[in-house]
Amino acid sequence: MTKPMPIDIGISDANRAAIAEGLSKLLADSYTLYLKTHNYHWNVTGPMFNTLHLMFETQYNELALAVDLIAERIRALGHPAPGSYKAYAALTEIPEEDDAPDAEEMIRRLVAGQETVVRTARSVFPAVEEARDEPSADLLTQRMQIHEKNAWMLRSLLGS
């Protein structure tokens, strides 16, 4: 077996490790939010069923693509991407539930989840900026923009 080639992309090993650690938390939050959103898509009921069913589907499909981008960035930095429920449970800040909330509570929980992902993405920026890691900064900026918009749209369904 051949020895792996060293990674020489202008980011130190320590900085790549710190960024990958932060992105792993972002991946765990994103995957957990994906599962929650997909679950709510399947189980939503009530007068807003069609609106929420379609909105949740749009959001979980976007998250399914996002987790791949995040994992691939972790790999490009030379680190393994977490990929198990156990790893995600240890890394995520989004609580898992086993109850059956009504539609309004689903919306509230998804707003909280979207905002958690934004905070997690924002928390990785110091390491990314220190390393001048523009690809990771771009990924984080895109994720924050999407999740802030999703939180706003969900929150708008609740009225004032």
From TrEMBL:
Domain of life: Bacteria
InterPro entries with a match to the protein in the record: DPS_DNA-bd (IPR002177), DPS_DNA-bd_CS (IPR023188), Ferritin-like (IPR012347), Ferritin-like_SF (IPR009078), Ferritin_DPS_dom (IPR008331)
Annotated PROSITE patterns: DPS_1 (PS00818), DPS_2 (PS00819)
UniProt-listed CDD domains: DPS
GO molecular function, one term: ferric iron binding
Ranges where the Ferritin/DPS domain occurs: 21-159
Pfam families hit by this protein: Ferritin
Family membership noted in the UniProt record: Belongs to the Dps family.
Protein's UniProt name: Ferritin Dps family protein
Source organism of this protein record: Allochromatium vinosum (strain ATCC 17899 / DSM 180 / NBRC 103801 / NCIMB 10441 / D) (Chromatium vinosum)
